[in-house]
Design a protein that fits this description.
Length: 439
């Protein structure tokens, strides 16, 4: 049925062309890597030794970060194994090259049968590892036909995605039946994989590898340098809103305007999820009457004069905008309270685990479908609160910022929750090496 899948992809590609053109021209996205996407990885990645090769695919920035510890532990557990990494997005590719080296990172091929066959022929993997949920028909079925195990680690499948995939009928069933093993994050996710065709004996509830990658610490190296460069006052409270999505920044700024009437020295840092939105958010901050201090404009020795929110006599408080890549955890390290974004809008939420590992009180919106189990555990531990409007967001920020004892209690329980959930990475490494050794 590869020809049928190819036909579907072709029609979908034609329909997507106007959007892709806009992304390339207006947003400057998806401009590179097309030879690998259409034809498979470059020849320099051709396997040239007898070592077992594991192909790890992590679609974007979040999955690349989640795969980091897995790759390190796999290579430490078996020195005869070598890992190559594929990714789809520009941000994922840049981060992958930073973490693993550009010589073993490539663009994931579009799921046309010829591109997949070229990739398998070049990489010659002993096993293929998909991070979270990047299951494609041609990849899974062609790999299965050639006896190459395909494993899913940190398996994540929302109810919405499960229902959509089920609509594909026989295509979806054959695709999921071709999987060798799934390490699901929780029982509900395991049941969804099973409903789509993965045999029950091929599914384990392994937990989330992000509990393992979340670094438990009191501070992050470079956080004070960041504060100095931007003019963030470390003696005044700081509210950090990370990985925000479209529509959320307006809600946050509405909440902040009200909060400053009660907590006059509260500082706000906004870090949008997508780099292409940095200018948009900067313009919104200015439109709402705030000054904007952009991280990209700040030198290492800091601005000569930065007006802090609430500074006496200054009519225009500022908002700090994190518009660089790779510094989100430094902002979190400086925070007194953190709002985890893409959760006040229907986007499934962002990772709360790295915030918990730093011992910070967490606030989210009501949509945390992508991190349901972690959110539930942090809620139960009293480390996280959920809100459904700018008014309740403002109320919770004021309550938490004004109560040092509560902040400490929430932060400590957050760290304890991270510690007790570790172990998914080791379990996943053992399984993948077990299957990789059978080829």
């Amino acid at each position: 049925m590869s020809w049928f899948a190819n036909a579907i992809y072709g029609v979908a590609g034609l329909a997507y062309t106007p959007i892709l053109t806009y992304q390339m021209l207006a947003q400057r996205k998806n401009r590179t890597g097309w030879s690998e996407k259409l034809c498979g990885p470059r020849s320099s990645l051709a396997k040239s030794s007898d070592r077992r090769r594991v192909w790890v695919h992590a679609v974007s920035l979040g999955e690349i970060n989640a795969a980091r510890l897995f790759v390190e532990k796999l290579e430490a557990a078996d020195s005869s194994a070598e890992v190559v990494i594929s990714t789809t997005t520009d941000t994922g590719f840049a981060r992958g090259c930073q973490l693993f080296g550009a010589d073993r990172v490539f663009r994931y091929p579009l799921d046309f049968s010829w591109a997949v066959r070229n990739a398998i022929r070049t990489i010659r993997p002993s096993a293929i590892v998909l991070v979270e949920l990047e299951v494609w028909y041609n990849l899974t079925t062609i790999a299965a036909g050639e006896g190459i195990p395909v494993c899913v680690i940190n398996g994540r499948l929302t109810e919405r995605s499960c229902n959509r995939l089920a609509m594909l009928g026989p295509l979806s069933k054959r695709m999921f039946q071709s999987l060798t093993w799934v390490g699901a994050q929780d029982d509900a996710i395991a049941n969804r994989f099973k409903s789509l065709g993965v045999p029950g004996d091929k599914i384990d509830v392994a937990g989330s590898v992000k509990w393992d990658t979340a670094e438990v610490a009191d501070r992050i190296d470079g956080d004070l340098e960041l504060a100095g460069a931007m003019g963030i006052d470390v003696n005044a409270p700081l509210w950090v809103c990370g990985s925000t999505g479209p529509g959320e920044e307006a809600m946050i700024l509405d909440a902040y305007s009200g909060i400053r009437e009660k907590v006059t020295d509260l500082q706000l840092a906004l870090i949008p999820r997508k780099p292409e939105r940095f200018d948009e958010v900067a313009a919104l901050i200015a439109k709402r009457g705030f000054g904007c201090v952009r991280r990209s404009d700040c030198k290492a020795d800091g601005p000569s004069s930065v007006p802090h929110p609430g500074r006496a006599g200054h009519p225009q408080p500022v908002v700090f905008l994190g518009d660089t890549m790779g510094e989100l955890r430094k902002f979190y390290s400086l925070a007194d309270v953190v709002f985890v974004g893409r959760s006040m809008v229907p986007m499934g939420g962002s990772d709360p685990m790295e915030v918990a590992a730093l011992g910070k009180p967490i606030i989210t919106g009501s949509d945390m479908a992508n991190f349901r189990d972690a959110t539930t555990q942090l809620l139960d531990a009293g480390s996280l609160v959920q809100v459904d409007s700018p008014a309740t967001l403002a109320q919770q920020v004021v309550t938490i910022v004004s109560d040092a004892a509560r902040r400490q209690k929430m932060g400590q329980s957050a760290k304890e929750t991270v510690q007790k959930n570790r172990g998914a990475t080791d379990a996943s490494v053992r399984k993948v090496l077990e299957f990789a050794g059978t080829k």
